[in-house]
Amino acid sequence: MRLDQFPEEIRSHLIPEPGGELIYRCLSCHAEHSIESLLYTCPDCGSVLLLHDRRFERHKAIGGETWQRIFDYRRMLKIPALKGIYRYHEFIGPVIPLDSVVYLGEGHTPVVEANGILQEKAGIRFFYKNDGQNPSASFKDRGMASALSYINFLIQQGLVDQVLSICASTGDTSAAAALYAAYLKPHVKSVFDDCMKVVEALSEQYNVALLNSKNAWRILGQESYSYEIAQDFDYAMANKVVVVPIGNAGNITAVMNGFLKFFAVGVIDTLPKIVGVQSAHANPVYQYYSQPEEGKRQFVPMTVKPSVAQAAMIGNPVSMPRVIHLVDRYNQAAGRPRVFFVEVSEQAIMDWQLTANRNGHIACTHGGESLAGLHVALSKGFVTSNETAIVDSTAHALKFSGFQDMYFQNSFPDGFAVSPNPALVNQPRYVHPKDLEQVPAPGKPLDKEAFTAFVKAVSGQIAAELGLRKRN
After folding, report:
1. Backbone phi, then psi, for 358, in 5-degree steps?
2. In whole angstroms, what is the distance from residue 392 CA to residue 355 CA?
């Protein structure tokens, strides 16, 4: 759709110009630092940072309903930079010019309603948001699009030259970082290590871009998840619940911050409930919020046990200070508790993931963790059956097919504490009638008589095993 075909009062807003005044703000000492340098922690006190727009209040003058129209009309544009997370440019990276945006098809992943059987099992109406349909097959692409667009902007401004990108990863982060860094080369190179302390040391001492969720630009890009949910539900967030796995706590941080921004300018008029889920094998955030006296809570890192939700197997989440800060802000803005935390067993994660996939979804183990968490939240009364939930499946199911095979073959090591439910085991069944002498093979077709015998024998065994009745 051409620009001149849009309503006149909206046209000037559709293609955003760089604006705003982004700075890093420390969550501990509240110091502010320029974004012209790559920073991951506060140079003054070492705490984590959030990006803040000093001119954010200007968005309120436009009005919530007008913002809704801007985003809805912007959806019709053919400009690549506005097809992904930067559809919400003013809320994600207002200082980034559109020609610096790296867009590889990320964002705007489908929201798919569960079928009636699965909703009945869960006890609530819910949708899966399938973030496994991002380019590298996980939600991490949202943050990478933001982080690498920022680096591209620094390069174009002459503020940095050659930049090495690096991360610690269980798989999803490194896949996303490699994809986006490869697109930007030769300006950005990439290398990966599974030791967070090593990558932190490198990023602090050298011209290295740390791409883990410690990077505040990663958090900024992941806010798009909440913006998309709001838009997909016509900005009506009353009686909505968003369920996310916690892991390194970057995603739940981003979701809270995104909804807070939309709420502040009137794009949404209600803050949805948020349920953060952790496995009992890696649950330091849940343990923190389980302490009853709010003012006396102490965060204690833990040694994790094996988990099928590999990306969530983190005992000392980098973004924990952000979580504490934003949970307080979120609940205060809502005027009541709206953020809840639950833990689930490894058994429940696998059982719910397989149940979802047997009902037509492509949920990963983290999607199983989220659905299991929704079930627990219902049982605890954090969520009610008259609400509607949006459940996060963070990656593609094929990334975790090994765990499904282990479940089917009952081969989980003892540390996982997972035993297969026979009703959920769905292994392939080999069909080869005992009395069948000849079968077709590549390059070795059967003659007509042998092929007729093959079809009759195989179809007969399948019908017998499935209990099919012949037509009259």
Report:
1. -75, -10
2. 15
Q: How many CB atoms lie within 10 A of CB 226?
A: 27
Side-chain half-sphere exposure of 84, counting CA atoms within 13 A: 26
Say how far apart CA 320 and CA 82 lie, in whole Å: 31
Q: What is the rounded average pLDDT of the residues 91-118?
A: 97
Residue 192 has what pLDDT?
A: 35
The burial class, CB within 10 Å (0-12 / 13-18 / 19+), for 56 is middle
Tokens 């871009």: give the residue.
209
Res. 336: pLDDT tops 70 = yes
Give the up-direction half-sphere exposure of residue 290: CA atoms within 13 A in the CB hemisphere: 11
**Domains of the chain by start residue, with CATH:** 3-141+218-405 (3.40.50.1100), 142-216 (3.40.50.1100), 429-472 (no CATH)
Indicate the pLDDT class of residue 394, thresholds 50, 70 and 90.
very high
Rg (CA), the chain: 25
pTM: 0.92
% of the chain at pLDDT higher than 90: 78
